[in-house]
Amino acid sequence: MSTAPEAERILDRIEQGELAAQAQEEVARAVRLADEADADDTSYRARMLQTDIAHWLNDSDTMLSSFAWCVAKHDSDPARFPIARADDGPDLLFQHKWIAGLLAGNSRFPIARIDQVLGDMERRFREAGLSQNGVHQARRDVAIALGDYEAAERHMTARELTPRDDYSHCEACQRSTDAGFASLQGDDEQALRLWQEIHERDLSCGEEPEFADAQALLPLLRAGRGDEAMIVHARSYRAARTNPDAMSMVRFHLEFCAVTGNVERGLELLQRHLGGFTVDAFSDQHHMGVLRSIAVLLDAAVEAGAGERELVGSDGENIERLFGERKRVHTVSEFRDRAWSVAERIGGALDERNGNDRCASDLTAARGLRTERYDLPFSDAEAYAPLASAHPEPSDARGWLIEARRLVAGHHLSRADEAAARGVQTATPDAAPPLHTVRVWAALSDDDETAAAAHHRARVAAMREAGWHDYADAEERLGLKMLGNASRGDVDEIAEEIERARSHGSDPSLLVDLLITFAATQFEAPETPTGGVEAALAAVREAALTLPDDDKNMLWPGLVDAHLEALTRAELFEEAGEVAALALEDPRAADAVMLTARRVVTISMASKARFDEAATASEGLIVDAARAEDPVAVGNSAMLAAQIYADLGRPREASARAAYAIRSFEQVGQALPGQRHTLASLQLDAGQAQAALENFQLAFDAMHESGEEDPVVLSRVASGLGRAASECGELAVAYRVWTWAARVAEDAEVWDRAASVTLDVASLLHDVDDEDAVVTAAEGMELAMRSGVPALLARAQQLHGWFTAGTGDAVGVAVLDEAIGTAEAAELWERALDARISRGRALLALDRHDDAIGALREAAEAAERHDMPQFARLADIHRATALTEAGRTDEAAVVYRELIDRLDPADDSGIRDAARSALAELGG
Predict the structure, then answer these.
(1) Residue 550: pLDDT over 60
(2) Which of 203, 219, 617, 813 has the most crowded Cβ, counting Cβ within 10 A?
(3) Please, are residues 830 and 819 in contact by the beta-carbon 8 Å criterion?
(4) Helices (H), 427-532
(5) What is the rounded CA–CA span in Å between residue 220 and residue 191?
(6) Half-sphere exposure of 382 (CA within 13 A, CB side)
(7) Residues 902, 879: Cα–Cα separation, whole Å
(8) How many CB atoms lie within 10 A of CB 556?
(9) Cα–Cα–Cα angle for 53, 56, 57, nearest 5°?
(10) What are the helix (H) ranges across 826-868?
(11) Is pLDDT at 908 greater than 60 in this prediction?
(12) What is the DSSP letter of 446?
C-alpha cells in the first residue's frame, strides 16, 4: 500500500496550521513517506515546505539539502516541478534569497562559490521576468557577511534604484537589516531613524519588529533614551521569546542586560533559551554572534561575583557540538571563557576566507562592552539572595562528617560519599561508624544496594573496632533496616531488638537508633493499639529521653526530624512548634541542616499571625536550605517566605523572595506554572508590572503546554496577565486576554470569574472612550447577578451606573443607587462610599449641580461616620469642583481651605496638591 496519501495528509495539516508545534518532525515524516512511495511530486511538495520550515527554525543543514534537491528536480522538469505550487505556498525563487547568505556565513565555502550562487539566482530571476530588487538585497546581505561594507553600500544603492516586486524582501525586514548595517558602521542615529520608521509605518513580518527592536537596544541607550530602551526590551523580548529561532534575537537582550546591570535577568534569559540554541554544521557566523553576546553577559556575571555558579543548560548536546568537548555542566566563568575562545576561532576562519578583519574587530568591540555601563534596573524589585555559606575543607574526621551530612541533606550523593570516605581515612575508632553511615545513606539514595551493603559491612567492622559490640550485633541481625531501609513488614523484628536493648541494658545510642527506626515504620501505618502515629510518637518521646549526652553516632538531628514528623502527623502543632524552637536553640543545631525544625517554627509563627517572627524564621530556613545546596528546598523555603511577607503587606520583599525561589527551581527544571503565577501576582502588587507581565505570560503558556484545562485556573492567570498588560500600557493585549478569559469562564459557568473579567474589559473600554463600555458593563452586571457575590454585583452596578450617566442618561443615577444599596446591605462600606462619590459625580456630569453638591456632602459625612477619611477627602474635592461649576466659588474656596488644613503635609495622594492648585485658580 502506497504511503504517499499519508504524506499528503500530513502536508495538508501542516499547511492548515494544525501541526505548528511539531512541524519540523512531521514534515520530515512526510518526506520519508513520500520517498518510500517513490512519489516525486509529493516529495517535491514536502521538501519545498521543509525548506521554509527549516529556514524559520534556523536549521541550515536541512534547509540546504532540501533546497538543493528541489532545485535539481525543478531543473529536470520545470513543468512537473514548478517554482511555486500555490500563490501563498513555498517558492523556489524566494528561497534562493536565503541560500547565498547561508553559505556566506560558513568559512568553508569560498567566495567564488558564493558568487556563483548569486549569479545563478540573478539568472533565474531574469529568466522569470522578475525585478532584480531582491537580488540586490541578497548581494547586499552577502557583502555584509563577507565584511565588504563598500560593496554592501553599492548594492544597497542599486536596490533603491530598482523597482520592488513580489520577490523583494518585505519592507520590515529590509529596514531592519538596513538599521543593523548602520549600527555595524557606528551610525546609531541612522539605525534609530530606520527603526522608528518601522514602527511609524506599522511594518511587520515573521520576526519583525521584534528583531529590529532587539538591535535598537544599545543604540537607544547610547542616545540617552534609557527608559524607552527598557520598555522596548520588555516588549520585544516577550514577542521574541516564543519564536522558533528565539536566540537570534535574545542575544541582543543578553548584551542589553549586561550593560544595564541586569545580570540576574540576563542569566535567567540565557538559561531559558540556551537549550533552544540551534547548532548545525553551516551557521558559523550565527554561532559566533550568539557566543559573542553570551560572553558579553557572562563577563558581567563574573564581574558581579557569579563566576562559580553552574550555568543551567550548559551540558546540552548543542553545546557539546559547538565546543567540541564532552558534555558537562559549565560554571559561568568556564562557559564565558569557552564562548570567547570558540567565537574567536570562528571569527578567525571567517576573516581568513574574507580577506579582512571585520569579525576580529566586531569581537574586540564586544569585549569593550565590559566598560560600557548604564544604571537602568529592569524593575525596582529588591535584589535578594541569602548570604552564601562558606564550606572550607574540613581538617578532621568530625568536620568531614558534618560536611558529608550537609551534602546528603542536599542530595549531593557522590560528593557526600567522597567526603565521608575522606573522613574515614583520618577517623579515630569512635569517629568512623557515623562516617560509614553516610556512605550507606548515599548508596541507598542512589539505589545502589550492593554498595550500601559493602559500606554497611565496613560500618559494622568499625563499630566492633570502637567497642560497640551490642550495636554491631544488632545491625548484623537487622542488616540495612536501621539505616533507612526498613518497612512496615519489619516492625516485629525491630520491636524484638528494642526489647532486647532495653532488657540487656545495651548502649543507649542503640536503643535510640532502634526507636527512631521503629517510628519511621509507623508514620504511614494504620492506627492500632500497638501501631500508627501514636506508637511512633511514643517511640520518639522515649528516644528523646534516652539519647546520651555524648551522642557518638550523631543521632540527634534525625531524632528531631522524627519527633517533629510524629507530632505533626498527630496534629499536635503547638507542641511541634515548641520542640522545633528548642531544637534550634540547641548548640548542636550549628553543625546540622535543620530544615524540618526551621520550617515548623516558621509555619507555627505564621499560624499565630506572628508574621514578623515568621518572616525572621523564614530567612533562617532559606539560609539553611542554601547551606545544603538543595535548589528545591531553597525554592520551597523562599516561596514560604514570600507568602509571609505578602501577609505582612510587604509586596516588594515578597516578590524578591518569590523571584529567588523561581531561579532556584529553574536550576533543576522544576519551576511550576502555579509558582510563576504566584511570583507574577506578587510583582504586580509590588508595582513591577513589566516583570509581572512576562511571568504571567510564561505561566499561561506553560499551563497550555502542560494540558491544563481548568477554566478557573486559566481565567485567573489570564485575568492577572490582562491587568499587568493594562498597567504596562499594552491595552490591546489586555483587551484580547480579558475577553478570552471572560469567554472561557462564562462557557464553564464560572460566573464570578466571568463577571470580574468582563468588568475589567468594560473599564478598559471606558478608559479609551469606547462606546461599548456601557453594554459591556451591563453584561458584567448580569454575570455578577448569576454569581450571587454581593461585592461583584455592587462593583458591576457602580461601573454600569457611572458609564451610563457619562453618556447623559439619567438612568445611570438609579443604577448607582442600586450599587449603594447592594454594598451597604453586605456591609461593604468602601464600595458603598465609592459608589456614593460616583453618584455625586454622575449628577454633576448631568449638570444637576445642586443635587451633586448635596450627594457629595452626604458621601463625605458617611465616610466620617465609618472612619474612612480618605473617602471623605475625595468626596470633598469633588464637592468643591461642583460648587465651582455652579458659580459658588466662595463656598468652593472654603471647602478647599478646610481640606488643605485637614491634610497631613506628607500626604502623597495628590489631593493636597490638587486642592492648593484649584484654590489658587480661585484667587484664594
Answers:
(1) yes
(2) 617
(3) no
(4) 432-445, 449-465, 469-478, 491-504, 508-522
(5) 10
(6) 16
(7) 16
(8) 19
(9) 85
(10) 829-845, 849-865
(11) no
(12) T
pLDDT of residue 496: 93
Alpha-carbon distance of 46 to 30, in angstroms, equals 6
Is residue 258 a contact partner of residue 265, using CB atoms and an 8 Å limit?
Answer: no
d(C-alpha 543, C-alpha 848), whole Å: 81
Which is nearest to 697 in space by CA: 654, 661, 733?
Answer: 733
User: Tens digits of per-residue pLDDT, 859-873?
Assistant: 999 999 999 998 998
Using the structure block, give the residue that is written with the C-alpha cell 499565630: 608
Rounded (10°) CA dihedral 811, 813, 818, 823? 150
Helices in 241-331 by DSSP H: which ranges?
A: 247-259, 263-273, 284-303, 317-323
Cα→Cα distances 431→18, 454, 512, Å: 65, 19, 18
Nearest 5°: CA angle at 611, between 609 and 612?
A: 140
Q: Do the beta carbons of residue 516 and residue 562 sit within 8 Å? A: yes
Q: CA 434, 439, 441 angle in degrees (round to 5)?
A: 90
Cα–Cα distance measured from residue 314 to residue 327, given in angstroms and rounded to the nearest whole number: 8
- Furthest C-alpha separation in the chain: 104
Q: Which residue has the cell 519588529?
A: 209
Q: Give the separation between CA 592 and CA 906, rounded to whole angstroms.
A: 49
Burial of 7 (0-12, 13-18, 19+ CB in 10 A): buried
Q: How many helices (H) and strands (E) does the chain have?
A: 45, 0
Reported as a single tens digit per residue, the pLDDT across 652-686 is: 999 999 999 999 999 888 889 999 999 999 999 99
Q: Encode pLDDT of 789-846 as tens digits.
A: 999 999 999 999 999 999 999 999 999 999 999 999 999 999 999 999 999 999 999 9
57 versus 848: the higher-pLDDT residue is 848
Look up cell 463625605; give the residue: 860
Question: C-alpha angle with apex 342: 248 to 664, nearest 5 degrees?
Answer: 65
Q: Count of CB atoms within 10 A of residue 856's CB?
A: 28
Question: Is there a contact between 895 and 879 (Cβ–Cβ < 8 Å)?
Answer: yes
**In this predicted model, which residue has the larger pLDDT, 901 or 779?**
779
